[in-house]
Specification:
32% of the residues lie in helices and 19% in strands. Helix 3 links the parallel strand 7 and strand 8. It folds into 2 domains: 212 residues, Rossmann fold; 134 residues, Rossmann fold, CATH 3.40.50.460. By secondary structure, it is α/β, with parallel strands linked by helices. The longest helix is centred in the middle third of the chain and has 22 residues. Helix 1 runs parallel beside helix 8 and helix 4 crosses helix 5. The radius of gyration is 22 Å and the shape is elongated. It is built from 10 helices and 16 strands. It starts with a strand and ends in a 7-residue tail after the last helix. The strands form 4 sheets. Strands 1-16-15-8-7-2-3-4 form an 8-stranded mixed sheet, sandwiched between helices. The structure holds 6-O-phosphono-beta-D-fructofuranose. 6-O-phosphono-beta-D-fructofuranose binds next to loops.
């Protein structure tokens, strides 16, 4: 891993060829995207570069797709560090190598438009791209880098499932939102002696469920990494009942699955939607718990609430650091890389390494050991 330098901004021999920088945001939004954009724009403009934003991932480059190329000056990014979402717009259906084109008969045909991206960069005289995204968008960035696009990635996702960085920005805010929700549910659950199942995001990694479940003191935490046994979940609830605790909170990641079973899906891929949409495990569990324990059980899926709202101070700081570090990479012409946090440093790691594997929760994690020591059940 190369460490990105920390000296003050200024023109370096390597950066002399850089004049125009592009920034885009792809995939599901995450709190902190605007902070990255602001940091990158300020750091780049202090080097005398011109910066443009590509709206809606790569769509802004295509005349037939929604979005445009917009100038990003320091005044365009004034006062956005604390704002959720992205001023550039985003999409999780914007893979230029697998672009959904609607034909006149209404059917969808997939096309590879990567050469159009390269041509647009040449036409617009763009020298580099800072691509802010999660595993999907960074995989696209890695592919575009292999085709010759000078790109630096910035890791974003509330799921925190990117292996090459200690943390992604957006995760801390999402975990905070989920923790607050679990906290609020405690009083109503206790008043009614009910069981509440809180479904949080996390398709393949249970980071949000684990952090918010432990910090919010859920009684049962179910994550994709530990298949659960519904009988064990109910045992925990009934054990609490017998000890006079008539309410319980179950925190479940949307990608959790029963022993020998599958994830619960809300929709299967169709039309322009490539990925199955997870969801519904909370409702399913609530029904099973009610049937097995006889206890009144309610489910609540936090869904996109976890992606909205202002980033926490921690996420703002990481995002600002990532934005500034990405500009240093561009200045050094260190392309095909992603900035990553390796405390206390921000490093540049090869994009190919960054997207190689999903960072799941290690089963021997100290957080899991802590929760177990306090009596929390993982349904196993
Ligand atoms: O990658 C972040 C994430 O929030 C996942 O946890 C979730 O499954 C997915 O995005 C949902 O995305 P959308 O509903 O926006 O397609």
């Amino acid at each position: 891993m190369a460490e990105t330098r920390t000296e003050p901004e200024g023109s370096t021999a390597a950066s002399e060829g850089i004049r125009r920088l592009a920034i885009n945001t792809g995939g599901g939004d995450a709190p902190g995207l605007n902070a990255v954009i602001r940091a990158a724009v300020l750091a780049a403009s202090r080097r005398g570069w011109e910066i443009v934003g590509i709206e809606n991932g790569y769509a802004g480059l295509f005349p037939d797709a929604p979005g445009d190329i917009v100038p990003l000056t320091p005044s365009d990014v004034r006062g956005i560090t604390h704002l959720g979402g992205t001023i550039l717009g985003s999409t999780n259906r914007g893979n230029p190598m697998d672009w959904p084109c609607q034909l006149s008969d209404g059917t969808i045909e997939r096309r590879d438009r990567s050469q159009e991206v390269l041509a647009a960069f040449e036409r617009l005289e763009l020298d580099a791209l800072i691509a802010i995204g999660g595993d999907g968008s960074l995989r696209i960035a890695a592919r575009m880098a292999s085709l010759g696009l000078p790109v630096v990635g910035v890791p974003k996702t509330i799921d925190n499932d990117l292996a090459a960085t200690t943390v992604t920005f957006g995760f801390h805010t999402a975990a905070e939102t989920a923790t607050e929700a679990i906290g609020r549910l405690h009083s109503t659950a206790e008043s009614h002696g009910r069981v509440f199942v809180v479904e949080v995001m996390g398709a393949t990694a249970g980071w949000i469920a684990l952090f918010s479940g432990v910090a919010g003191t859920a009684d049962v935490i179910l994550i994709p990494e530990i298949p659960y046994d519904i009988a064990k979940v109910c045992d925990k609830i009934m054990e609490r009942e017998r000890s006079g605790r008539r309410f319980s909170i179950v925190c479940v990641a949307e990608g959790a699955k029963p022993l020998g079973g599958e994830v619960t899906m809300k929709t299967v891929p169709s039309g322009s939607e490539r990925q199955p949409r997870l969801g519904g495990i909370g409702d399913q569990l609530a029904q099973q718990i009610a049937e097995r324990t006889g206890k009144e059980t309610r489910a609540l899926a936090l869904g996109h609430l976890q992606r909205g709202g202002p980033p926490t101070a921690y996420d703002r700081l990481i995002a600002l650091r990532f934005g500034a570090a990405a500009v240093r990479c561009v200045a050094d012409r260190e392309f095909g890389c992603m900035v990553a946090l390796d405390p206390p440093h921000v490093l540049a790691v090869p994009l190919d390494d960054a997207v190689r594997e999903v960072k799941t929760v290690p089963i021997d994690s100290d957080i899991i050991a802590t929760a177990r020591a306090l009596g929390t059940s993982f349904g196993d």
